[in-house]
Amino acid sequence: MEARIAYSGRKFARPRYYANAHERDEVDIVLHPMAMTDARGAGTSIDREGFEIVAHRSAVTDFADREQVARIHMREIEELVQAQTGADFVHVGAPGLLRFSEKSGKAGSLDNSMPARFAHIDISDATARAFAERGAGGRSYLRCAHYNVWRAISPPPQDVPLAFCDARSLAPVDLIAADAVFDAPGQPEWSFEGLVVAHNPAHRWHWFSQMTIDEAVLFKTNDSDPARAHHVPHVAFDLPNCPADAPRVSASKCARRPIGGLERGAHCATHTVTNDRVRCGHGCVSADDLLYRCERAGGAGSGTARTEGGGRAACRGARQLLSRRT
Question: What is the pTM of this model?
């Protein structure tokens, strides 16, 4: 199948894009037809191509109910990421996002609820390093990897599914540093450096056909381990020949809220909370919906969370689970 992928041209020296006010975006959109491979049954993996589909049935009955999602789904995602990555500890920091295709009539009705219409990677290497170094406090860590989880909650087919680029087909020259700006209504704007993607005919794009609510795609947005898939460009695209009455609705822990975990033998002592940002006390910082996992050498867990004001609180449940002994 061939599909049109929205890439970034090089008109802007420093592209800038917003979670809500897309009329303020400074991204040079260039459409290119690209081969699109159905990855269902292909056996892709999180550490080779950088993405994989997993069977995952949620107990959530209404993904628009944030209280229910916070109470049930955050813990489910914690367990899912733990099972797929082998981490001893996983942290989910917020319920995540609902996104809608334009034909649904609901795109933009919630904060950051429009499809991601140009190829991008959520965080740059510089951002990933900063997240780690700001929380390290002079202590060493072995690895920091960031993950996203994406689920279609509308029945198949979806008119605007998410496509994933094989991490092995990406070249450094394809990536353009950009400012990702979060402009939630009534809140101060904040940003970090992300990446937009320029066209390269070598890119190998994939999507998963006929996704159901009982499946999820786990994909990687940064990994400091050079032996594994580093990061995966992704983009919402128009599915050719899709029926007009199949608007996509998706639930994600994929745009900006933290999930974190430690590899076996490592320990997470504390996380520092600053508004919507969560940072591991020894190496990993994340913001909004970003999913992250960290591992470091040595250390011992305290089983408490430290707030920016210096207070401590016991960690109870997925919502407050900022740290724990592993």
Answer: 0.76
